[in-house]
Amino acid sequence: MRKREEYHHLSSQDMLAFASPCCRVHTSSTCHTLLSELEQIWKDIGETEADKESMILELERECLEVYRRKVEEAANAKACLHQAVAAKEAEIATLMAALGQLNINSLIPPEKKSASLKEQLALITPLADDLRVKKDERLKQFADIKTQIDKITSEIAGYSNIVNAVSSLNLEDHDLSMRNLSEYQSHLRALQKEKSERIQKVVDCVNEVHSLCGVLGLDFDKTVSDVHPSLHETSLGQSTNISTSALECLDQAIFRLNTERKVRYQKLKDVSGLLFELWALMDTTREEKSKLSRITSILRLSESDVKEPGALSLEVIHQVSTEVERLNKLKASRMKELVMKRRAELEDICNKNHIEPDPSTSADKSSAMIDSGLVDPCELLANIEAQINKAKDEALSRKDIMDRIEWWLSACEEENWLEDYNQDYRRYSGGRGAHINLKRAEQARIKVTKIPVVVNTLISKTLAWENGKQKLFLYDGVRLVSILEDYKMVRQQKEETKKRARDQKKLQDMLLSEKGTVFGSKPSPRRSSSFKKANGYHANGNGSVTPSPRRNSIPCATPDLLTPHSNSMRQNGYFKEMRRLSTAPLNFVAMAKEDTVSFSSISGSEPESPPQC
Questions:
Q1: Rounded Cα–Cα distance for residues 67 and 83 (Å)
Q2: Are strands 478-479 and 537-539 parallel, antiparallel or unpaired?
Q3: C-alpha to C-alpha distance for 57 and 391, rounded to whole angstroms
Q4: Per the record, where are the segments of Polar residues compositional bias (predicted)?
Q5: Domain spans of the chain, in order of start
Q6: pLDDT in tens, 272-311
Q7: What element of type H or E holds 546?
Q8: What distance in Å separates the CA atoms of residue 524 and residue 510, rounded to the nearest whole number?
Q9: Distance from chain centroid for Cα 175
Q10: Which of 90, 277, 320, 358 has the smallest number of Cβ neighbours within 10 A?
């Protein structure tokens, strides 16, 4: 009996070993009470000691089974807790690796190592939840960035479908680090920059197409829609096409429009050139020209500067072409008048430059040929135009020599005036205007002295011109060198005649002086009253002498035919007169005295200089 009590006492102690102190006290007292009651019941029943021992052993086995089951359950719970903690740690490690956080110890507090499993699980569970939230946010960021990248890439490539960004990230969700996110963001910024540049380029191209369509008068909507409809207007869900193919199409469209603008500008320029020529030929009034003043303003600009809407439209070119056709028809009816007008212009150019015009297109011949229908008026007009151009070119090449001829003729005119002035016996009087005549006389003497040098220079330059052009230099149909040689010969004959006259006068003076010595008286020189009228001067109210524009009839070395006041040099009769002067004897009765006084001290101005030789 004592053995059962000891055993029973030990079993109760083992059962209460795992319980808390207060629970163990209460359980122990309860077990003792129950055993006491059980023994009393067995005693009352009359159970044998063996039965009692057997029932106590059964009770002990049942208690051990309960303990064993509870231990197993506790071990399983511990294993589950170990597995949960390990799973959480593995999840945390995976999440941190995906998020790029490699140091896991920085997130787990140090007291975790000494804490129980439930405490450890309670510590790492929020951390795992936070990392899952971060991963979801990071995935969302990657998905947004990837969506934008795919969208921009598809716009640049010209694709309409966008790849699902989330599904494309499934293969890459193991790397959700900030480094990878930064690379995606950098790639996105580069694509956004490229997209912005492409959009700006598309806008610039579309604006240029709009400007060109306006200048050419084309339909902008149709033109740009042929490239891509989105370039004109963007509907819901449709973005502007910025693909490489769209940009290439825009560049090609701009190139075609620029080429068309060049072609139309050149065509308008050609047609307008014909129009301007017809205006000049037809003497079109300013009112009629004002109807097409817009064309003139357009052609003043270069082809690239034409920006006015409709400036190079087909309507404008058709308008100018219609006007050209109208004027061509009108020109055909007025061709004879135009031919006569251009022939008169040719003759005017030739007369001004002392060139003989082509006699094959003279006014009489041209009129007869047009009336008879032997020649096309347009061809005749073109022939006269060519003769005009040729005459202008020749006049330009003769300009230097013609300028020297003008100076020579002016010097000859001054020489004639000086001879008239030297024959005036009152030229030294102190009347009004006398000092002006004295000054002019001094300048005329200096100018006359340069005539031989100028004539020789003219001859040399004329010969050089003839050698260069391989033809004669004709002045009103006569060779200029022949005129100058005849002039030199006549001038030399005149100088010799004047010298003989001076010698004869000196001899007469000596005879008169000797005669006066014999008879004791000296005759006074005679003065002809008729000489006052023939000398080309007239007296004014105070007795002074002023030159008269009337020419003297006394012959000199330069005939009147070569002076600017006479047109007779243009007649071939001049050369007959030149030959007559070179062979006929001169009248010495009216010849003036050559003993003149120099007035260089009176005159202070320099005379006109000849052209540089």
A1: 24
A2: unpaired
A3: 156
A4: 541-551
A5: 39-163, 336-426+433-510
A6: 888 888 888 777 888 888 888 888 888 888 888 888 888 8
A7: strand 545-547
A8: 14
A9: 55
A10: 90
